[in-house]
Design a protein that fits this description.
The protein is an alpha+beta fold. It contains 7 helices and 14 strands.
């Protein structure tokens, strides 16, 4: 009898121990995250200085088809001082973005304390530190900003780089760094880098051939271009309609350099051809990321609270259990964040969708699931 009771107690303790570990393993493994929240916080604090007064801390988790990332947010508990936020790739540990804002930030002088050249040096050092493997593939873009000579706003200057592959610009990929010219502080950073393999330029048509394809496919249309909004108080508005050739084609004037034909997107898709710094990222973190900073009690509390939450897959299963997920749609985005009505509650926001075609319309489904209890909050 004693032996059986002892075996039962050992089994019970072991089971409870394993159950207590399960949420942590599920939350990490089901989302393929190799970088924990703990590591993400330390990586950011190693590379940037979080103001010590920003003791309010919260985190979120974002998952989409292109990447998974941790969002980290520090703020002044009084609500007056400002905020500091960052995003870290949950698969690689690479810092994707950072933004620092101070409520009372005002320039003390009408003239910058550092030059644009010095600001670029500061930004370059940051990029070499954060993305050493990528920096050689970046090309700086020329400055064309106007520096305001005023004492009523911070003199923030944005430095931009574009990504080159085979010595050809990759539209949309690059990095930006924002530097305060009054004190040299870095107030913003953003990385946009797609992980798709770019095709070889071998076999590409010449620019002359592309021009011929442009004309052959009648991409240019003769149109009247109307003037912009008139000035109501002007005595005599001299603006007149202009007769011009304008791009009027689904390709928006983009020619496939390997096929020599207009590149038209599929229904429900669009082509990204302008430099934008608000999307994908990847690749490993630098060797220096091994030196971590200590965590504050607020950060440790956040890590402890998120460890007991259900995974993205478990939240999706809860939606399927209660309402059923239609066939033919895919989970495109999942976001874990605090509930806007109750900051103590964590919510999984899930978005499914399908692309429309000639035979079937597009379908979308949005649902909210309590990340602690697995209850369906809304759909």
């Amino acid at each position: 009898m004693y032996k059986n009771g002892r075996k039962f107690i050992i089994w019970l303790v072991t089971t409870l121990f394993l159950v207590s570990l399960w949420p942590v393993a599920a939350f990490g493994a089901d989302n393929s995250t190799t970088v924990s929240l703990d590591q993400a916080i330390r990586i950011v604090k190693q590379n940037f200085t979080v103001p010590p007064g920003y003791s309010n801390f919260s985190s979120g988790f974002n998952s989409s088809n292109s990447r998974q990332s941790w969002s980290l947010n520090w703020s002044d508990p009084s609500g007056q001082g400002g905020s500091f936020s960052a995003e870290v790739n949950a698969a690689t540990g690479e810092v994707i973005s950072m933004n620092s804002w101070k409520n009372n930030e005002r320039s003390k002088t009408a003239m910058p304390a550092i030059s644009v050249s010095e600001a670029r040096d500061i930004a370059s050092r940051l990029l070499k530190q954060l993305i050493p493997q990528r920096f050689a593939s970046l090309s700086s873009l020329p400055e064309n900003q106007i520096i305001p000579l005023t004492g009523y706003s911070p003199l923030n200057y944005i430095l931009r780089w574009e990504r080159l592959a085979n010595n050809i610009p990759v539209a949309g990929d690059g990095a930006t760094v924002e530097v305060n010219l009054s004190n040299g502080e870095i107030t913003g950073y953003n990385l946009n880098w797609s992980n798709l393999e770019v095709p070889s330029p071998a076999g590409a048509i010449s620019s002359e051939q592309a021009g011929q394809a442009f004309i052959k496919n009648e991409i240019l249309k003769l149109q009247y271009i109307l003037p912009s909004i008139k000035r109501p108080l002007a005595e005599k508005d001299k603006s007149q309609p202009v007769l011009a050739y304008n791009i009027a084609h689904n390709s928006n004037g983009i020619i496939d350099a390997l096929k020599g034909t207009p590149l038209e997107p599929e229904p429900g898709h669009w082509l990204q051809y302008r430099l934008s710094m608000y999307d994908k990222a990847g690749m490993g973190m630098g060797e220096s990321s091994k030196d971590f900073s200590s965590l504050t009690p607020e950060e440790e509390k956040e890590i402890s609270q998120t460890a007991n939450l259900i995974s993205k897959d478990a939240a999706a299963a809860a939606v399927d259990k209660y309402i059923g997920i239609p066939s033919g749609i895919e989970l495109e985005n999942a976001n874990l964040d605090q509930d806007w009505q109750n900051r103590d509650i964590r919510i999984w926001n899930l978005q499914w969708s399908s692309h429309s075609s000639a035979s079937s319309p597009s379908i979308s489904l949005y649902a909210r699931v309590n990340a602690l209890t697995g209850e369906l909050v809304a759909f």
